[in-house]
Specification:
It is a single chain. This protein has 210 residues and is mainly alpha-helical. The protein has a single domain, classed as Up-down Bundle (Rhomboid-like fold), CATH 1.20.1540. It contains nine helices and four strands; from the N terminus they run H-H-E-H-H-H-H-E-H-E-E-H-H. The strands form two sheets. The protein has a two-stranded antiparallel sheet. The radius of gyration is 19 Å and the shape is globular. The chain starts with 13 loop residues before the first helix and ends with a helix.
């Protein structure tokens, strides 16, 4: 049989689907676990003296990867996974699974390293996909720079639709991350530097692999 169809097969973002599923499964296991603290102790990163620990126990490098799948609660998971779902599938369709894997996990690991260096004197527990997801934001800016983001604002009883350039939205988001990083505040237990480093590495990696 001769196939005269000129249609290309639609690419299915397998890796993004697997990562998203893994994030969900791990969160469910954490919620159902009798001793979730033990899981965090074995797979998350305690930033204080982590780099010193790695120098004597290289296997502890695994935490730079494993911590990307752990979240502290459902709200933490929902924020990261909402952005992941919005961005990951489109980015993988453009880059393919190999380059997507390099970008996503590369940004996440670099974000974790930056946080470990910056927070080496504190006992903060580092976990979550924020650095990797921030890398997706950086990649999105490179791959789709002309896009607009649509918003719906409630005004009284009406819903007003509007849109803003992607570059402006990302600039505002990044400005907030940088401002919070340099503010002397204990209001948020967040490693903002991980977001900044993840975004930067995702932006640069996307320019390199696209």
């Amino acid at each position: 049989m001769i196939n005269f169809s000129n249609k290309k097969r639609k690419y299915i973002p397998y890796l993004s689907s697997l990562v998203g599923l893994a994030l969900l499964v791990v969160m469910i296991l954490l919620v159902r676990a009798e001793d979730s603290h033990n899981i965090y102790a074995n797979w998350a990163i305690k930033t204080k003296d982590y780099l010193t620990l790695v120098s004597s126990h290289p296997w502890e490098l695994k935490r730079l990867f494993s911590s990307l799948f752990l979240h502290g609660n459902w709200s933490h998971w929902l924020i990261n996974c909402s952005v992941f779902v919005l961005l990951a599938f489109s980015i993988e369709r453009v880059l393919g699974w190999q380059r997507f894997m390099l970008l996503y996990f590369g940004a996440g690991i670099i974000g974790n390293i930056a946080a470990c260096v910056t927070l080496s004197s504190s006992s903060q527990i580092l976990l979550g996909a924020s650095g990797a997801v921030s890398g997706l934001i950086g990649a999105w800016l490179v791959l789709f720079p002309g896009r607009n983001i649509r918003f719906i604002f409630p005004i009284g009883l009406y819903l007003q639709k509007t849109s803003l350039p992607l570059t402006l939205v990302v600039f505002l988001w990044l400005s907030i991350q940088i401002a919070l990083q340099f503010m002397a505040t204990n209001l948020y237990n967040v490693a903002w530097i991980s977001h900044i480093a993840g975004f930067t590495s995702g932006f640069l990696l996307a320019r390199f692999v696209k």
